[in-house]
């Protein structure tokens, strides 16, 4: 379960407004920790690649040094062109 925020309010998703998200399901999954093991495994895997924050990008199992959009699009374009 999520602890209360510093201001004393309990975190909730019910007043959020991103389209296409089932907020009741999201909150239920969050409270029941439905995906906790998946998240922990992803965290462990990211750490093994040297990821220590976000955003980080990988293209074909290569961690990009730069997290800028230009670095990501450049790496994708290079792969699409058959480069390594």
From TrEMBL:
Positions of the DSBA-like thioredoxin domain: 20-64
Molecular-function GO term, any one: oxidoreductase activity
SUPFAM superfamilies xref list: Thioredoxin-like
Pfam (any one): DSBA
Coiled-coil stretches: none
Domain of life: Bacteria
Protein known as: Thioredoxin domain-containing protein
Higher taxonomy: Bacteria, Bacillati, Bacillota, Bacilli, Bacillales
């Amino acid at each position: 379960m999520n602890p209360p925020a510093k201001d004393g309010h309990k975190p909730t998703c019910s007043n959020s407004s991103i389209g296409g998200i089932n907020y009741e399901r999201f909150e239920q999954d969050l409270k029941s920790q439905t995906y906790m093991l998946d998240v922990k495994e992803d965290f462990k895997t990211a750490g093994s690649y040297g990821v220590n924050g976000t955003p980080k990008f990988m293209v074909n199992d290569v961690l990009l040094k730069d997290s800028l959009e230009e670095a990501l699009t450049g790496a994708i374009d290079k792969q699409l062109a058959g480069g390594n």
